[in-house]
Amino acid sequence: MEMGKEIRRLREERGITQEGLAEALHVTAQSVSKWERGTSMPDVQMLPQIAVYFGITIDQLFAMTPVQQMERMENRIYSQGLMDAAEVRQLEQQLTAFAEQPELAGTAATLLTKLYNHQAEQYHLLAVRTGREAVEKTDGDSDAISELANAWGSYISDWNVRNHHALIEWFSAYCRRNPGNRSALMWLLDNLIDDRRLTEARQWLEKLTRMDHTFRVPMYRYMIAQAAGEKEEAAESLKELESMEDQEWCWAVTLGDIYTLRQEYDRAIDWYKKGQELQPSPKFTDSATSIAHIYEILGDAPRAISAYQEELRLLREEWGIVRGEEIDEVERAIQSLQ
């Protein structure tokens, strides 16, 4: 067993005898010998104690590679809700240590970002729950309402608050340094369009056109024309987009998003269903979630529940997720509709 080999390696590396380790862990020397020979394993409840004794993580005790450890960390982050401060500190310390290794630095930094984003999202959910309570208990106090709206990601009319100039400037500089990065260029376009900086958006779209030959080019043409109020050009781009049958599955989901924003909900649902149908396994849950939200907007609780149940099915059958925050969130949505 790999754990037994790792215990032996750690013990010998530190110059500790089997008897010394046994005494520190309050077990017999024979037990330690059996672990190291692979004929038995330490009790699960002892693993934290062994890890602390050697000054390592439990994952390291299992002799996992750094990449395997980071995969496990990512699963750990997304399988639960808000993590306590001690758990976050432990993950931060492990990932910071990995980030010092050049070959792992990028992956570790990405995972740290995921950790912070996950915690921020969970705190926002907590703020929504307490914010609703605050509004009710203060008889609609304006300060409580403002905090609830912020927690819920509300639209903010003040341009100085809602504009994306800092993000745009950073991504513009990054795209100039890395002109072949399509993903960064698309994020830049999204935010330029949202801020109605359409002249700049058209200039960057020309760069995307030279490197991308998918549905994304007419999609951005449509978005820019729509934002500029150019109805004929928007209609032409949308017609072109719909005709691109040979595209990857997210082409259909994009059309679902477009028709949702146009409040043409029946067409949106059809496109979302087509997108889910076209996806290879494991299928994402985005289409089912979008359909559920549309039915909630329309006040059709039974169909919204049915869509959420489809989301649960996808999580369980396609991804093997049977418990955790992702399941809990959907079940809470169903309960609120029943």
Describe, in plain words, how this protein is organized in 3D:
- The protein is an all-alpha fold.
- It has 4 domains: 64 residues, Orthogonal Bundle (434 Repressor (Amino-terminal Domain)), CATH 1.10.260.40; 85 residues, no CATH class; 90 residues, no CATH class; 73 residues, Serine Threonine Protein Phosphatase 5, Tetratricopeptide repeat.
- The chain is built from 20 helices and no strands.
- Helix 18 packs antiparallel against helix 19.
- The longest helix has 33 residues.
- The two termini are 50 Å apart.
- The mean pLDDT is 92.
What share of the residues does DSSP label as strand, in percent? under 5%
The coarse overall form would be elongated
SS content category: mainly alpha
Low-confidence parts, pLDDT < 50 over ≥5 residues?
A: none
Largest sheet properties: none
